[in-house]
Each structure stands twice: as C-alpha cells, then as structure tokens.
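Contributing new records

If you add data, match the layout below exactly. Sequence lines come first and carry their own label; structure lines follow with theirs. Keep one chain per record. Anything else will be rejected by the validation script.
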Amino acid sequence: MVFSKSLIAKKMFMFLVLAVLLVGCSATNSSSGKSDSSSKSGDTLKVGLQAPMTGDNAQYGQDMKNGVELAFKKINSDGGINGKKLELIVGDDKATPSEAVAVVNKMIMNDGVKAIIGGYNSSPTLAAQDVSGPAKVLHLNMGASPDLSKTGNKYLFRVILTGSVYVPAVMKYMAEEKKVKKIAALFENTDYGITMYDAAKVSTKELGVEFIAAEKYNPGDKNFSAQLSKIKTLNVDAVMVVGLYNEVALIEQQAKQAGLNIQFFSPDDSMYSEQLIKLGGDAVENHIFASMIDLNAETPEMTEFKKLAGENNTPAQANTAIAYDAAMALAKALTEGDGDTDKSRDALAKIKYQGITGPIKFDENGDRANTPMIMQVQKGDFKVIKESE
C-alpha cells in the first residue's frame, strides 16, 4: 500500500499529540502520589481504604469503612489536617492479592493518596505493600500474619496485635485454665490460617499440649462435615478454629449437629462481631478467643466512640473501632508531619496515642506492643474472662 506524504504527515502529527498527552497524564499521576495535597487547590488530603467490599468478607470491609468515615468526620469537623480536609478513596481488594495490588496501585498512581488504611486479610496486605512500600506511601493494616513483621517496609504499620502475641496468650489460657492436653486444629488454607497454626504449635512446646490433628478448609467453604467427622473420632479436649466469623459460625453449627460437643477457641478476635452470634446462635456459645478490644469497656475513648457511632447510625463493631483508631493515629501523624510523607512516617513510628483499643505505639517492625485479653461468648454477648497483663 502506498501512502501520500500528506497522509504520513497527518499520522505523524497525531502520533506526536498522543505522545504529549500520554506524557502529561503520566506526569500528573506520578506527581499526585508525591504532592502534599490533591484536588481543590490543595485543600484536601486523600487517604485510601484497601478492604474487601464485596464477596464473603464484605462485612469486614464495611465495618472498616464505617470506622474510617467516623474518624474522618470528626477530624474534618475539628479543622482537618492543618486546615486540609481528609478525603476517603475506597478500593475493593475482594480479599485477593491480585485485586489488592490493582486497587493500591490505582489509589497511588491515579488518585494520589497520601496514605492507605487496610487491608483486612493478610495475603492481600502482603501483596499490596510491595506496591505501597516502594512508592513511600504510609500503610496501616489489620493483617494478622507474622510475615508482615518481616517485610522490611518502614512505611508499613500494623494496628492490630500480631499472631506472635495473640497465640501464646490464648494457648496459655487454654492449657492453664481449661487444662486441655490434646487439641485439633481446623484452619483456613491461607497465609493467615497457616501462620497462626504454626505459631500455635511452637507455643505449645512448653505447655504440655499437643496438636494431634490439623485440618484445612478454603475461605468461602460451606460444608465442613469431612473435617469435623475426622476430629470427632480423635477424642480431643478442644478445637482451635482459625478463620473469620462467617466460617466459624457454620463450623460450630455443623459440629453441634454432628454431636461434637467440645470447647472451640480461636487465637484472635477475627470473629469479634455481633454477626458471629447472629449467624451461629447457640452453637457459638462459650467460644473463646484473644482480643485487643472490649466494646463493653467504660473508658472515655470508648464512650466517645459509641456516642459518635450512635449519632451517625453506625454499628459499634470491633473492626469499626480498630479502623477508627487507625484513622485517628494516622491523622495525628499527618498533622505532626504537615502532610510530608517521611516526616509523617517518623511521627507515626514514635506515636503515643490513647485509642479505643488501648495505647497505640509501634515497635521497630511497625507492630503494636499491647498485650491481649481473653474473651468468651456468654449468653449472646462477649465477656472478658481474663484481663490483659
């Protein structure tokens, strides 16, 4: 095919125009992630929420969103961050690593967020921080996996306790107070479930407790009859179930139906939600777990949080309170750092903030340094059965 010089010239012109537009877009996206402000002539700061907003884990994401929105409403009404309003950008990570990478990349490159709160699940958080870390974006997460302590990402902070703190506390309680000797483990086949089980095995070595079975399931499973039937034949003293309240409720319902009347417990407070009791009913009665928060505590921070939640018709759930604390701690750091990434990061690393979940401070790995309490489902409510030490 023969092209005229005129046609060739027109094509070259269009190519050059397109190239300029692409460069301009690229520059805009790159600078938005580094600038101290975003839209509206620099009067806002954008913060991303990476959380599961759809799928089986959507309730956790909604609870987190509620908490951050409550905090931002309070912060903005009090003057914002040195006069700049906080704007929330929500990204649905669908509780999967690939989606987490995609939404975090978009929030940083397209939306220009200064920081990210989330994710909730460990595996998506581990994947997402590979993006936020090199971009030098503050990232406050709620993942429980001990592997999050080993990333070397100085911009990554964890607002919940780690499995290395939760697990020894609950295992010690089960051994010393409940006198268990033989335990079966039933855990979700994810980074979270596997690392929690591994930590439990290590912590039992000095307690005279033995895991005699380890059964797995996949998140979203509905039928646990095969695993429960096997556990029933082993005559164990207790079952440690590691997962989220959706599956925990089903597991204990099916255990009760199968005549497996045994003590169930979990290493952390992933099931600390009214939804566990709503879904599980009598089957989850007496369930034991370690927790970093008591929603029935009569502290000034809890009273203020519940008042704010009530005024906004927001359920005062555990994950809502933890996300609220994350947002408030982040706001304090951004204020002290005046929106500058590294100054805000240093402020967060040295923060001392009294939150709903207790004192917030971080160790050299960006992990919380609190100790957990032990809680139990009793008569349709969550009760503290052992205070934190």
